[in-house]
Structure formats: structure tokens, C-alpha cells
Amino acid sequence: MAHSVLIVDDAAFMRMMIKDILTKNGYDVVGEAQDGQEAVEKYKELKPNLVTMDITMPEMDGIAALKEIRASDEDAKIIMCSAMGQQAMVIDAIQAGAKDFIVKPFQADRVIEAISKVLG
């Protein structure tokens, strides 16, 4: 059975790009969210194997969403997606329980490498 993934990013273009990379590599994209609040709700509803989480988003940012998801499911596997220059936020995210991070602009190989490493 394919691993299920929830994609969280406020930019529809980025969600589409990540979804394209994942579906071409055999992953099952079960949902998308455009902010942290929606991510928390969709995570509880869909229970995906993995979440790709943007850091900078409206309403609730990726780090707050990561903390809330991990508070309800300490086994949640979340990979942060950051832009260049957000190293301090990436460190916050890893300390809050993120499994890995990928830096935009994405390279398909790096996305798949990070996800397959986290899912084992």
C-alpha cells in the first residue's frame, strides 16, 4: 500500500509541484491544506503517514501547526519546507519534532530522499 501524504503550503503552485513529485514516485496524496489551522484539522481527519509542512503561512504558521499535531500524535512524521534564509525557524521546527526539512526551490530527488528516509 502506498504511503499517504498531506501537503501543507499556502501557495497552490507549491502544493501542485509537491503533489506532482510525490504521485510520480508512488505516494498517495490524501489531502492538501493552505494554512496551519487547516493542516491540524486535516491531519486529525486523514491520519496521513507523513506531512510536508510549509513554515510561513497565514492564520497559523507551520511551526505552530507542527507543535499542535505533535501534541495530539507524538508519532506524527512531519517534514518542513522552508525558503532560503529561514535556518533559525528550521532549528525551531526540528526541536519541536520535525523529522527533516527541505529547502525551496525543491529538487525532486531531495524531496523523495527526505520522505523515503523518514518513512523508512
From TrEMBL:
CDD domains referenced in this protein's UniProt entry, alphabetically: REC_CheY
Residues recorded as bearing 4-aspartylphosphate in the entry: D54
Keyword Phosphoprotein: yes
UniProtKB keywords: Phosphoprotein
Keyword Kinase tagged: no
InterPro entries: CheY-like_superfamily, Sig_transdc_resp-reg_receiver, ST_Response_Regulator
The organism's place on the tree of life at top rank: Bacteria
Annotated Response regulatory domain residues: 4-119
Protein name: Response regulator
